[in-house]
Structures are given as structure tokens and as C-alpha cells.
Amino acid sequence: MKRSGIQKAGERALISLPKGLKSVLAALLGIALTMFGLLVVTFLIGRVMPIDPVLAIVGKRASNEIYEAARISLGFDQPLYVQFWVYFKQVLSGDFGQSLLTSNAVTDDILRVFPATLELASVATLLGVFIGVPIGVYAAAYKESIFDQCVRVFGLFGYSMPIFWVGLIGLLVFYGTLGWVGGPGRLDIFYEDIIPQITGMILIDSLLAGDFEIFKNAVSHIILPATILGYYSIAYISRMTRSFMLEQLSQEYITTARVKGMSEQSVIWRHAFRNVLIPLVTVIALSYANLLEGSVLTETIFAWPGLGQYITTSLLSADMNAVLGGTFVVGTLFVGLNIFSDFLYKVVDPRAR
Amino acid sequence: MAETNVKNLRKWLETDTPQSRTQAKLSQLFTSWLDLKSNKLAMIGFSVIFALIVTALFAPILAPHDPYAQDLAKRLQPPLTEGYFLGSDELGRDILSRLIYGASTTLYIVFLVTISAPIMGLLVGTAAGYIGGWTDAILMRLTDIFLAFPKLILALAFVAALGAGIENAVLAIALTAWPPYARLARAETITIRNSDFIAAIKLQGASPLRIITGHIWPLCISSLIVRVTLDMAGIILTAAGLGFLGLGAQPPLAEWGAMISSGRKFILDYWWVSTMPGLAIFIVSLGFNLLGDGLRDVLDPRRQKL
Fold first, then answer.
1. Is residue A2 scored above 50 in pLDDT?
2. Is the minimum CB–CB distance between A9 and chain B shorter than 8 Å?
């Protein structure tokens, strides 16, 4: 398993320290550098925008004096590196500025919409794990069988379909025609704002409040978008599981186990699968990170009020503080999950230490 | 006469003792092609791509209608209506004709991204891998930062910064797509760098630039091609996603993603407006995925028949 470049670069920078401390410091340095880079990129994207942020605030009819005053008060008269320094300090204290669209602090907005995305991505990942792993294992165990071929085609289809289109067709068939699932949004409109918000995830909040009717309604709404997002994670997880399993099944200890007369099922699950678990964790973390991204289009289709939709609507109304804040948060989560999976890998697998 | 010519050509291509460099190269290409031809799925993919190219080239001849001609009296006609094989959209434009013209938009995007991103990755990766030291550290750090961003969101942010439009969408996709190529090229370079033949060329006095462009690049190309083919489906999907969000090709230009988006409003009553362009995207992406899978088996020496 390859290590992330983040750590390698960090390791190069440190030369002589005790080993354990060195690797921790190297990892931290790598993370810090990557986060800093993320911030620089988002900042620069914001500055090359053709839209004048001052004009967006003062309006077209403002006099030159008002425009100048606003420009100075926003700090746009300063050189770029000073502006960056101000932005950097702001972000360090958890402040992404104010959203033009909602006129809330971007941080508050993100905290408000994030649970919806987390809920969707989590349900999708659960589907990916509980369906993708078993079919990957069996595809490897019965390599080149019809089942294996079907899994392969199923995966290829997943990689080839535009997710927003699958979402639309899903809505058309399961909501419009069959009426099996709830439509767009997280709840039917008359159920909204009834239960107290604790985690922001309706599935959990409704259970905490003991309101099963709302829980059922929330399930009927989340099932379609989560299945569609989950499809992609099933395709990815099953393919990776299959290739990890194939690698294990060709090892000699498997032959030994078979010669000993173990049943095929226990060879698969108790011997081979156990050794696949570790790399699998990495794959699952990566697919979770990818779902956060995939949710941008899915959320748009299903009117799911999450981070992805927040970023796209802000984008279309040129609300740059919100876009940059959102982009930075998603980037951070992405990096975080990558590092987490690397870390987990090291903890569980003694060879990787 | 013609038959013997073909036979001779084949013999010339299949020879074990090539007389010239060109012959050796061509015969290698020919064997790869034979390998690819024996892979059924890859050939299906190849035919899809071939059909796409033909459609794009001959769009004006193939399309039954003008893709921009509006006919409000005939709006939202269902598929198989007289004159509208796949139906018409909300402005009465023929969906089939728009799909046919959309093929060239898709190819245009894919072509531009696939020549820009891998080349950028190749430049960065080989420079980092060959020069090493601080150059490597800085270039790879930059690569990691771009890799850390989720692709679509970075592309969205870029398009927002540059303004919506097809060229900017291409630029945004290319800017998000180069890091994996840089990683790949760097890894290849590092393995090649220390080989004996490079040492020999160095002793002959070749400059680093000459070594990189003349000896390292050609060896990186085949793995890059495989990776690009595998990525093409992803590029098409990202481009369609941008078009769907209204950030890619602008109306009235026929682009499949934007077509799905325009049919979205009445998907429940007039399903075909969104479904047809989605099917087109699906078929083309599947074609690229199948071809990429096949090419990987043929071109990747590590995966060759053991």
C-alpha cells in the first residue's frame, strides 16, 4: 500500500529525531503544508474572480466615495500578501466571512448544512460496505464465473453513468411513476421543524425524539439519493475488495488451509477475508471522501439541503465567501479522511509501521 | 495482386527480424492491435468511440434537422413521432439532431483535456523525478495540494473564477486532472533514471533536457495513454456535470449535460427530454471505459500474459 505523498514530503524535511516522534512530526508538518496550500489556492481563486466583490456589496448606484470607502474597509486596497495574511488569520479563528446570499456567517451556514450531507454520505457508505464487500468477496472466490462477470459489468455501468442523470431517472421511476419513495428534500413539508435538532441528522434526531412517523418519512426520502450515491460506492468497494481477495487467495497459506480440509467458506471468510480487512478500511475511507464530492450533483437533483447544494447555489449567485469556505471545508475533510485511513493502516498493520 | 500486397505487408509487420527502426515500431504496434482485437469488450468500446468520431465529423449530413431550429408548434413531441425519432425538446428542437451535434462538443472537450492535462502532468512529473531534491519536494507538494481537493468542487470553483463557458470548463477540468499524471510520470521517471542506458547516454554528454525529452518521455507515454483512456469517461462525466449545473457549454450550443438540465424541469411528464442525452453520455463513457480496460491489458507490460 502506498503511503500518501503528504507524509513522504514531511519525512524528507525531518532528518534526525527519534523514530516515533519523527513520523508524527512529519505527518503533522505534511498536513499543515497541505492545508496551507489549500488555503492559498482557495484565496487565489477568490481573487481572480471577474466579479467585483465591492460592487456586489455597495451596488451599482453607489458613488465613488462610498465605493472607495467600502473597498478600503474590506481591505482590498492592501497588497495581495497582506490580504492573504488577514484571510489566513480569519480562517484560523474559524471565520470564513459573511455570506452575501444568506447574510449569515459562512461558518454558521456550513455547520447548519453539513449534517445533511454527512447523513446522506454515511447511509450511502453503509450501503456500499454491506453490499459492496460481500459481492466483491464472492466475485473473487468465484473468479470468472457468471456472477463475477455480472459484478464487473455492474461496476462498469456505475463508472459510466452521470450521477445526476441516474438521480433524475430514479425520481421519475420510483417517485413519479411508482410512488415508492418520498420526493426531493429531506422530509415531507408538513413534518419539517417538528423534532428538535440535536445532531442535525434527521434519522438520528427523530429516533432520539421517539417520533417513528418522522423517522419513516425521513427514510423514504433518503433511500433513493443514498442508494444512487451508494451505487457508486458499491461499484468502487466491490472492485477493490475483489482485487484484494484475489491477491490473498493466491497465497500459499490458503492452499495449506484447503489441504487441511477446511470448508471453502471458512477459507474465504476466516483466512483470506481477515487479511483483506486492513486495506479495505483505507478504501472505505477513500470512498467516503469521494461521496462528499459526489453529493454535489446528487444534492442538486434531490433538493437536499447539504454542503454540496450550498456550494453550488452560492456559486451561481457569485457568493464567493461561501464558495471558498465550503470548498475549503470539503478539501479539509478530504485530506482528513486520507490521513485517517493512512493512520488506521499503520495502527492495524504491523508491517506498515 | 492486391491480395499478395496485403500478405506481404502482414509478413513484413510480423517479422521477428525487423530491418529498420520504423519496421520494429510498426510491427510492435501491429501486435498490440492484434492483442486488442482479440478482446471483445475492448472492441465494443472501440466501435463506440469510432462511431462517436464519425458522428461528430459528419454531423451536418447525419442530422435530420437543424439542431437550433425551433418549432414551438411541435414542442415536446414524444419519441417515434413522425420526423422526430427521439422526440423534440421544450423549444421544438429535434433531440436526435442535437445529440448528433452534441457528439462534437463532447469530443472537443475530451480532446482538449486529454492533450493538456497529461502533458502538464508529464512536464511536472518528469522534471520532479529527474531533477530530484528541492525541485521534487516543491513540485510534489503542489501536486498533493491539487490532489487534496475534490475534483468537481475545484473545477466548480475554477469555472466560477474564470466565468462559465466551454473553454473555461476545459481549463478547469485540465487543472484538476493533471496531478495523477504527474505522480505517474514521476514514478516512471524514478525507475528509469537509474537504469544503465541513461548512465550511458549521460557519459556521451547528453544534457538533462535531452535525456528527459528524448529518452524518458517516450518511456512514460504508454502508461500515460492507458491512464488517459481510463480517465476519459471521468472527463466526460465531469464536463457533463458542469454543463448540467450551467457552468459548461452555454445555450443554445448542443451539449449533452446541458440538455439533461433543460429537460429536468418536466422530467415527470416528458421523460425523453432528459433521458436521451443521458443515454448518450452513458454509452460513450461506457465505450471509453471498455476501451481503457482493454488498452491497459495490452499496453501495460506488467499485466501482460504471465
1. no
2. yes
Name the 3-class secondary structure at A105: strand
Comparison of pLDDT for A75 and B213, the residue scoring more: B213
What per-residue confidence (pLDDT) applies to A276?
A: 86
Q: Is A32 on the interface with B (CB under 8 A)?
A: no
In 3D space, the residue among A34, A53, A54, A55 whose CA is nearest the CA of residue A45 turns out to be A53
Q: Do B143 and A5 touch (CB under 8 A)?
A: yes
Q: Which residue has the cell 505487408?
A: B9
Residue whose grid cell is 471509453: B288
pLDDT of B225 above 80:
yes
Residue-level pLDDT at A294: 73
Per-residue pLDDT tens digits for A83-131? 888 888 888 887 887 877 777 888 888 888 888 998 999 999 999 999 9
ipTM at complex level: 0.81
CA distance B117 to B175: 7
Question: Nearest CA to B67 among B106, B86, B94, B91?
Answer: B94
Phi, psi at B46, each rounded to 5°: -60, -45
pTM: 0.82
CA distance A320 to A56: 11
Tell me which residue of B42, B34, B53 sits closest to B290, measured CA to CA: B42
In the three-class reduction of DSSP (H, G, I as helix; E, B as strand; rest coil), residue B66 is classed as coil
Least Cα separation, residue A6 to chain B (angstroms): 7
* Residue B15, helix vs strand vs coil: coil
* Nearest CB to A159; choose among B137, B233, B246: B233
Distance from CA of B155 to the nearest CA of A (A): 11
Chain A residues closer than 8 Å to B151 by CB: 293
CA A179/CA A40 separation, integer angstroms: 47
Residue A329 near residue A110, CB atoms below 8 Å:
yes
pLDDT tens for residues B243-273?
888 888 787 888 888 888 888 888 778 888 8
pLDDT at residue A224, rounded to an integer: 92
Q: Contact, A49 vs A57, CB < 8 A?
A: no
d(CA A89, CA B19): 68
Nearest to A169 among B149, B245, B275 (CB): B275
**Class of the CATH-defined domain A111-316:** mainly alpha
- Domain assignments of chain A as residue spans, ordered by start: 5-92, 111-316
Contacts of B143 in chain A (CB under 8 A): 5
- Reported as a single tens digit per residue, the pLDDT across A180-224 is 888 788 887 777 777 777 777 888 888 888 788 888 888 888 999
Pull the grid cell for residue A255: 492452499
Q: Cβ atoms within 10 A of the Cβ of A250, count?
A: 10
DSSP single-letter state for residue A196: P
Amino acid at A101: L
User: Given CB atoms, is A52 within the 8 Å cutoff of chain B?
Assistant: no
Cell numbers for B291:
476501451
pLDDT exceeds cutoff 50 at B306: no
